[in-house]
Specification:
single chain; about 200 residues; mainly alpha; about 0% strand
């Protein structure tokens, strides 16, 4: 395997780097986008119950002790308890936008890796073909073995770029869809809490 990578030339270095960065971001986002970390079900039930019973100080304390994105959003609304619904809703939306950007963090980097990996592979193809033509220029076409180095470099980098790009794009779509679903669910829960606060 190592010998094959060496045959791919210097372009294999950025392709390998892309694969490592993509994998690291995927694992980090997978950990960060857990539902239990973003929208803990037990927390929501407990806080909504506290608001219904008008135990606002307890609800604020509960939000502060929870580190989820949902807790930060609800806390913003509860702090404006007693004010007009528009004010409560605006504060919830403002914090919601910040939390949404936290959920979407680094996902675009994976998308960029999915785009540039095949381009790097194409670059390796071009450099490999340049080497092959240089061999033809110097030695002629008499010995096909002399051309093998440049052609193998071209093919290896093309394959490597696609091997990195295809799963990275799948991961990008998965993470983007998961973040969107969580953001939409946070919005629904936030509006429900805003309505609860209004009723009180």
């Amino acid at each position: 395997m190592y010998a094959i990578i060496l045959k791919g030339g210097w372009v294999m270095i950025p392709i390998a780097l892309c694969s490592v960065v993509g994998l690291a971001i995927f694992l980090e986002r997978l950990w960060s986008l857990r539902r239990s970390k973003v929208i803990p079900k037990d927390f929501l039930i407990e806080v909504e119950d506290l608001i219904r019973r008008e135990k606002i100080p307890e609800a604020i304390t509960r939000c502060r002790t929870d580190e989820s994105s949902m807790a930060n959003i609800i806390l913003a609304g509860i702090r404006h308890f007693g004010k007009r619904r528009e004010i409560v809703k605006e504060s919830i939306q403002e914090v919601g936008r910040k939390e949404a950007s936290v959920l979407e963090r680094y996902i675009n980097v994976i998308g960029t890796i999915a785009v540039i990996s095949p381009l790097l592979g194409l670059l390796g193809t071009v450099t490999g073909m340049i080497k092959a033509f240089e061999v033809i220029t110097v030695r002629g076409v008499g010995n096909p073995g002399d051309l093998a180095g440049g052609i193998s470099e071209a093919l290896i980098t093309t394959a490597a770029g696609l091997i990195v790009a295809i799963p990275t794009y799948v991961v990008y779509r998965y993470l983007a869809d998961k973040a969107d679903a969580l953001i939409m669910e946070m919005e629904e829960n936030s509006l429900r809490v805003a309505d609860l606060l209004k009723e009180r």
